Amino acid sequence: MVEKKGEYSVVPLKKKKKKDGSVEEVPQADAGGDDAVCLKAKMSLLNGITVIVGSIIGSGIFVSPTGVLKNTGSVNLALVVWVSSGVFSMAGAYCYAELGCAISKSGADYAYIMETFGPFLAFVRLWIECMIVRPCSQAIVALTFSVYALKPFFPECDPPDQSVRLLAVCCISKYRHSL
Q1: Which residues make beta-bridge pairs with 13?
Q2: Where do transmembrane segments lie in this chain (predicted)?
């Protein structure tokens, strides 16, 4: 029986024999004996929807329209740029869908690269994701939020860079402490 305690659950363990003859303990809800502490999975429907919508839309929709309109010079050409970007994004999504069907392992990019190119390049990809891509993405989202949050206080001009950066740092710091 699983005993729930706040943020974690106590799950009984069951001894499982490996191929090499050694024994390991694995969590089993119906086993007796010693217990293991596991994190409680909690993702509501609303949480799932916001994660998916945030992944699909991202923060680019709030940052790039001004630049696209400025560089194209017309609304119609800006719409053409957005539609063509959507077509390229769909092609990428179809490629990922095909990879997901062909390689049915969990782990997304890591699993696909591990299967195709081996452990070294899979590790490099995961390392780059953790050390460069995710932190940069979080910084861009925090800066975008900061600009939009401070804009009402500075209606005639852009918010000061130091204020934008300070609010972005506070957002990232708060996000990190809430995990």
Answers
A1: 27
A2: 45-63, 75-97
| Contacts of range 30-39, beta carbons closer than 8 Å, 24 or more positions apart | 35/3, 35/10, 35/11, 36/10, 36/11, 36/12, 37/8, 37/9, 37/10, 37/11, 38/8, 38/9, 38/10, 38/11, 39/7, 39/8, 39/9
Tokens 């945030």 sit on residue: 54
pLDDT value of position 34: 53
**Cβ atoms within 10 Å, residue 79:** 13
Model confidence, pTM: 0.58
What are the tens digits of pLDDT across the range 132-175?
Answer: 999 998 898 899 889 999 999 999 998 999 999 999 999 888 76
The identity of residue 161, as a single letter, is: D
Classify each residue of 130-153 as buried b or exposed e, where b means 16 or more C-beta atoms within 10 Å of its C-beta: eeeeeeeebeebbbbbbbeebeee
* 35-39 and 8-17 beta bridge pairing: antiparallel
